[in-house]
Amino acid sequence: MRPTIARVALPVPLDKQFDYLIPSHLFPIIGGRVSVPFGRQTLVGIVTEFAQESEFSIEQLKSVKEVLDSQPVWPDKLYSLLKWCSQFYQFPLGDTLANAMPSALRKGKPADFASCKEWQMTPSGSNQMMQGFGRAFKQAQVMNLLTSGAVSHSSLLEEDVSIATLKSLQEKGWIEVSEQKPQFKAWPKQIEADVEKPKLNQEQAIAIASVNSSKGFGCYLLEGVTGSGKTEVYLNLIKPVLEQGKQALVLVPEIGLTPQTINRFKKRFNVPVEVIHSGLNDTERLNAWLSARDKVAGIVIGTRSALLTPFADLGIIIVDEEHDSSYKQQDSLRYHARDVAVMRANQEQIPIVLGSATPALETLHNALTGKYHHLHLTERAGVAVPTRNRVLDVKGLYLESGLSAPLIADMRRHLTEGNQVLLFLNRRGFSPALMCHECGWIADCQRCDAYYTFHQYSNEIRCHHCGSQRPVIHQCQSCGSTQLVTVGVGTEQLEKQLAELFPEYKTIRIDRDSTRRKGSLESALTSIRRGEYQILIGTQMLAKGHHFPDVTLVALLDVDGSLYSSDFRASERLAQLFIQVAGRAGRASKPGEVILQTHHPEHSLLQDLLQRDYHHFALTALAERKLAMLPPYTYLTLFRAEANQSQMVEDFLRQVRHTLEAHPLFDQHCMVLGPTPAPLAKRAGKFRWQLLLQAEARSVMQKLLMSAKPAISMLPLASKVRWTLDIEPQDLS
Ligand code: ADP
Ligand code: ZN
Ligand code: ZN
């Protein structure tokens, strides 16, 4: 019998689906999109089920407006994975599915390749190339970008090319534009390009053989420092996969998606490589997505969201820098791309490789208990000498914008020898606070429980939590004094101080403020590599993915905050950062030195890390976690809630606590902590509280949440406060 009712998952924050009548001329399919009336809007949703009956009477039901797909949006396995995600992360199915679609599909556009504008050089343009472009630097930039073939309009804009420049080049007849659809081409017989490849060392060969021997699913932790040849292992693993006609997915952290990385994959193989990142426009994203689904692409490289790309025939998943915190989405569907990737590999029955120099404690635990296979790369190709590491006790020392005298002396020594120095300070702006010298009043954000950061460069004070900003103030708002002083040191102030201390050397600052413009990070990195700057100042942006062979001294200026943080993961993050920063420096002929300024040189974490290595630190940290009953030995869920009134938020979470504790599935191995005010107790005018649920087993946690959530949603206050669930949170703020 022809079904009369379609159950549709819609992108609305409700844990339910909606019934619509199917008009006789329409033929929706399960897993395909339909557009339906919803209130006064029309929404695009996914048909999840057919039914003959509804809990509503037929007269109350509205009808499906339009059927948008003749085949399901996702292959079966990915569709089940998305349903699993929705359950595991306690996020409404409709929202989850919408999250996983490229926005063009979310908006109801057809699931077909769309054509994109692309620019290419004309013959007369090539002629002009020989003669050069004189002082027309912008035009020269465009022409250089087009030398190796056509480039899409939007990627030119990403490179900061202006439309005016394109127009004027077009008028001169040097470039032309066309509309192109991605072309289907069978992959060539010879998959691997004719490029020079290093001869694998023994550890690499063992790693590759182990993964290749895996039948079906297998999860491999590939532990090796930067430069130990992990990427080379990935390339060798991908080769046979492509040769069998299967595809590969490579996930990289947000900051790791550099042109160098992408080029290594593109140069190595003769198959199309799709790159998926947040900078793509709707059309490009849809094309990349379809290209993977229809097997145009052999390899997809991308950041977190690339995990949810459909593949015709996926053969391997690689997660590089698996410990990186950008793999966890911090809003809406709060999934961890690494964890879901393992789930996906399991479902597809394929191998997955997690690579890192500093594995997350969760991952290491899985490797130590035998759940994952553990592979090691211990030799660092190229750089033979490890860095010399030293703790510098700054207790009682005068700090000049965060720099101690011994450090300044060390810097001078390295600079005089013609080397570069990298200073690491994870706080942007000039100073984290502006204080009245007379009465102690501190300029604070009215909307947050936080101080304003002073940005001297733009002459503003800004709140780093709600983003509000205002011109710098010159008078105390409490006593009227004009004696305002800065408290603490940010990267801007450090930059200024260095210009005074080392006027003969050039300093460059790399943080979110200095690299706002697209392409500016790349060009800064290039000038650093060319040696145009001797002193580099960076926040954690500079810690990842970039190698600076001429840097011989790295200093971490202020790590004490991480040693005594309320977030139990802070020390793990510091250890990872330390190893990464150290990995930036030096080469065989120029061994590096790493200095850590601290008031707590005796701290056991620092001792473990410096005297021994990350692995020993990790074992100690795991033992501490076990004693404290923290992940990976237990599982956490964080309830966050906020509203305009503090009391209401606290009351709501108290009721949540009672609901959980009274639940039959809540056993002696479960525990609730809180409610407590969030570390940032007020943000953008809202009061914030949180509640932590802890369970010894993942399955207990899941069943408990699934069964208790409807009751929690029914609490009278549930509709008055904004609340969210964060399953296995990475960040407790
Ligand atoms: P990782 O990904 O661990 O940082 P890479 O794979 O990028 O390491 O390797 C670092 C450098 O060493 C690269 O230039 C790479 O070409 C080179 N390399 C990798 N494996 C070998 C090897 N077995 N012999 C010589 N050079 C190698
Ligand atoms: Zn604020
Ligand atoms: Zn004052």
From TrEMBL:
Instruction: Extract the CDD domains matched here.
Output: DEXHc_priA, SF2_C_priA
Q: Which domain of life is it from?
A: Bacteria
GO CC, one annotated term: primosome complex
Q: Which residues form the Helicase C-terminal domain?
A: 471-628
Q: Which reaction does it catalyse?
A: ATP + H2O = ADP + phosphate + H(+); Couples ATP hydrolysis with the unwinding of duplex DNA by translocating in the 3'-5' direction
**Biological function:** Initiates the restart of stalled replication forks, which reloads the replicative helicase on sites other than the origin of replication. Recognizes and binds to abandoned replication forks and remodels them to uncover a helicase loading site. Promotes assembly of the primosome at these replication forks.
Family statement: Belongs to the helicase family. PriA subfamily.
- NCBIfam families assigned: priA, PRK05580.1-1, PRK05580.1-4
Name of the protein: Replication restart protein PriA
Lineage of producing organism: Bacteria, Pseudomonadati, Pseudomonadota, Gammaproteobacteria, Vibrionales
